[in-house]
Amino acid sequence: MRINRFSLYFKIFVGLWGTIMIFAITPLLMILVSNQESRDAFYEHAKKGLEKNIVIDIRAAANSGNIPSLINQVKRAEKYLNSEIFIFDKNSKELRNKKAPLGADNIIKTMTEDKVVLIKKYSDDKNDKRLIRVIKTDEYVLISYPTGDKPASFSAIIFAKHVNAFIYIFFLSSIASLIITRYFSKPLLTLSKAVKRISEGDFSVRVAEELNRKDEIGQLGKDFDIMAAKLQHIRNTKEATLRNLSHELRSPLTRLRLSLELARAKAGDNATQALDRIELESDRLNEMIGQLLEISRIKSTENLEKETFGIKSAIQIVLSDGYFEANETGKNLTYSEDAEYFIHGNQALLISCFENIIRNAIKYSSSKVDVKVGCEDSFIVVSISDDGTGVADEHLSEIFKPFYRVQADRDRKTGGIGLGLAIAKTIVDAHNGYINAINNQYEGLTIEVRLPIDSV
To answer: What does the pLDDT look like over 329-370, one tens digit per residue?
Structure first.
């Protein structure tokens, strides 16, 4: 998984982990910047502690009978304690076939059953502070002789003594930082996802119960739920008003059409043009009301009646009329697919969706419209491309909104009222799909519909 170094999660984690590690190494840093006397005292203390730990580890390895482990521990002691160590078994044989120094046999003989540790001076010189150390276990006798090598450095001793502590601190601080970071970032991620759903028009999302917190973040979740509920109420009220208004307009519109027919029967030829204009506008109004009711019906239907069918069959129904309409306007409509794909959805609604998009493309194309069906990332992808003038980039995301028209005069000439693509988007959303508009490289516009493919 790729880590985003600009994410809040990463920043909180690094900040917490870095703070813990700084506090952990602060005592050591204070020793390093102190005077020489303090550093020497700390060095001797660390060296004695290291010697004690090494002796314990050597004794444990010897008693376990693990020869490789014992040899590794001996090498570690020789590295840090400036000594040469000999390992003798019960037959006084050196395990690593090293030549025993003079006096080693006498030292082994002095290690009686009740004597497990022996420390003696290396020489009779009073000024020589070097010592010979002897450890006896059940199976072995280990004799450590001092060497004339340069003592291990301050940093080497400190590292060897505290390496385990550093490792523990590193892992514990990492785990603690991950837990704390997750504690604070998880609710923010939940809120972020909820905000995204709100931006996509899903006002039913709620987060307070999922957050389940009593702190400021929990209060933020409650405030978010209140906001989402108010937005949902506003949208529902708006849709209900629009739906009721559309229904109410149907009755006077019907009476208008009836009166129009009566007027046409009584009027002379001089009134024909005016009456035709009234009829045209009433037809447009009737179409608009029908489309508004269609949008409202789809949005208010929680569970659509769905079935599994081939996407090709739905598009072919639309194309049968599309070919005729394209020929009538002197344009070319083509269709291609790479395979047959199945979808679980409402066939009538999807036919309406593709009909709105294809008719819209024919209306605004210059000479041709291409319809292509393919598959990408478990989605059926239906692309409808025209060779018209396209749409300015700033309008691409707006053309799916009801009554939104890029060029009002052009839409009036073609009879558009700005609801066809809005209906298409409503239908695609009801099928958990995606719809977007893309300007072609050279000319025209492509409407791309992505619908979840059915696993049949």
So the answer is: 899 999 998 788 899 888 888 988 998 899 889 988 999 999
CB 157 within 8 A of CB 130: no
Structural domain span for residue 129:
8-158
Q: Count of domains in the chain?
A: 3
Residue pair 133/118 in contact (Cβ under 8 Å)? The answer is yes
**From edge to edge, which strands make up the β-sheet containing 141-146?**
83-88, 141-146, 131-136, 117-121
- Could you give the C-alpha distances from 133 to 88, 93, 120, 128, 142, in angstroms and in order? 14, 18, 7, 15, 8
Report pTM: 0.47
Instruction: Name the amino acid, one letter, at 456.
Output: V
Q: Could you report the per-residue pLDDT of 229-286, keeping only the tens digit for each? A: 998 888 788 777 766 766 666 677 777 777 777 777 777 666 777 777 777 777 767 7
Instruction: Using the 3D structure, point to which of 300, 331, 357 is the last residue of a domain.
Output: 300
Of 47, 54, 39, nearest to 85 by C-alpha is 54
Q: Are residues 247 and 351 in the same domain?
A: no
First to last CA, the chain: 32
